[in-house]
Structures are given as structure tokens and as C-alpha cells.
Amino acid sequence: MDVVHSALHAGHDGGVELHRGQLVPCYECPARVDFIEQALRAAGRHTWLPPRDFPLERLLDIHDADFIEFLRTAYPRWRAEGRDGSMLPSGFPARGLRRDRVPSGIHGAMGYYAFDAGTPIVPGTWEAALASAHCAMTAAALVTEGARAAYALCRPPGHHAARGTYGGYCFLNNAALAAQGLRDAGKARVALLDVDYHHGNGTQEIFWERDDVLFISIHGTPDTEYPYFLGYADERGAGRGEGYTLNLPLQRGTDWARYSAALATAREAIQAFGADALVVSLGVDTYQGDPISAFKLSKEHFPLLGGQLAGLGLPKVLVQEGGYAVEDIGHNVAAVLGAFDSAVLR
Ligand SMILES: [Zn+2]
User: Fold this and answer.
1) Could you confirm whether the keyword Metal-binding appears in this record (predicted)?
2) Contact of 151 with 139, CB cutoff 8 Å
């Protein structure tokens, strides 16, 4: 399988994040990519490609222009105030506060565009996020040019980033950009299946009113799990998009038996939709050893997940999302991709 990868990810090394009320070292760290790269190179079955370049305007199909401008200029603005280190917001426009204007100061602007304090911006963040987006867009281009499947080794991840907000370690929505790339290249109906432990709130928001992209997410219930405020089963899309969002929230402690039943429901929905192509938001934080998640999938389940995805028989773009059990992330990603290469069809 083609693997698209950029070394620019390493410039985004966030330092610290606010996680469940405590300031801790970032779970989303550059070593994640090192372990994935090691495991995929050891498998020896993949063709490594750099991302292509794309005009900045392509981002505007998915994101608001003012949001892109904020991300692009955020760190220089922070530096202009004489600050350094990681940028973290500390005030947000919650209920009762104004959301109709963006404060001109960097601290207010940060709170306006962010939805958590777990997603630091550092000097290399914009370049890393842009390269990550280009990896996903390149993988989509490879599939439209005839590849059956391509994998974008994206870091930072993307599925929490919405049209005009960032959070959950995500800045640009890589999977949404891949789906849009497939649509622009003539794939009429694109299914986007998010198997990361956390709900893909950004992707859901982006495609909420669209009927050409089916969004399905299997994730820890937002009642107890991040991102807390989106991802319930009664969210089904709106307007033309009504019925084109399917959330399958599961309880903490979910094992493979219950997980694979949700996966079967997702597969049926993708087939009923008549998808021409599939984008997978591939988080492997469903793993039982993950430090910030609570499902019970073990190593032997990731080849089964890969087989279920491969068995859908559609052209596929796999986009890396989460996975924070750093020393096992490579094994688990390679196991999913290996199922594609050995054409295990279930
Ligand atoms: Zn996740």
C-alpha cells in the first residue's frame, strides 16, 4: 500500500496539555509517528511517498478563511507579545458570552477558535498541520488515480477540527479534506467511517448538512468521554444531510464482541448508502493499553478490524488519527494495514 508521510510533523511538539483537569506532558507526541514508521518499514510491503503540494484555497472547501488565517499567524502573534513556549487558551465563549466578534488580542482569539486547552500551538504547528493535511489530500489523489487503497500517516490528527475551531490535538481536518478531494475528483458518494475512540466532532460538523458524504462514527460515549458535547446517537444530520450522520456511541469497557457488532452496523450503512469510496479516520486508541481511552480491543483485534474494512471492497483512503499507547501504536496500525495487503476479506 502507498504510505504518504512528511517529516514536518516533528516540528509540532506541543510540550504540555490540560488533560482532565491536570497539566501533563502531551499524549500526542512526535514519537507516535516514529513507532508507526518503524512497524510499517519492518513489514516491508509499503511504498513511501512525500505529500504533494496543494493551493491554500483547497482548505477553504472545508475550513473558514478567518480560521485558517488565525492558525497560520497564531504563533508569530504570540511571539509579538514577547511570549514563548506552548500556546494554550484559558477563556472560551461559553453560553451567555458573545460569539459574534473575534477579540483582536491573541488570548481572546485563541479562546474563540479553540474548544479545549489540550491542543497547544508551538512554532512548527502550522507547517506540521499543513503537511498532515497534504498527506491526506495526496492519499485521496492516489486513490482517484487508481490505487485501491492509500494510507496517510497524518500527524497532527484531524477529526476533532471543525470548520472554524480546533481542539483534541487537531488543527486541520485531514479526513474531511480527503473526502472532499474524492468528491472533487468525481466520486459521487463518499462514506467516512471514524473508528477512533473519540467522536469525530469536527468531521460531523463539517458534513452535517450534506448528503454526498455519509459520516459514521463508532466511539466512547460523550456522556463520559472526550469531546463530551457531541457524538450522541440522536445526532443524525440536518437539512439535506438529515439521515447522513450515524453515531454509534459505546460504553467504557467495550470489548471486541460489542465493538464488532457496531462495526457490522456501520458496514451495512455504508453499503446501503451506495458509497463510491471510503475514507477511514483510523484511530487505534480503541486499544486496551491506551492511556486516555477505555475500550478493550487487544492486539489480535486490529487485523480483524483491517479485514472488515478491506472487505467493504471500495477504494479507500486511510487517515491516521489517534492512538497514544506509543510503543504499541506501530503494531496496531501495521496490523490494520497488513489485513489490506494480505487481502483478508471478511
Ligand atoms: Zn482519539
Assistant:
1) yes
2) yes
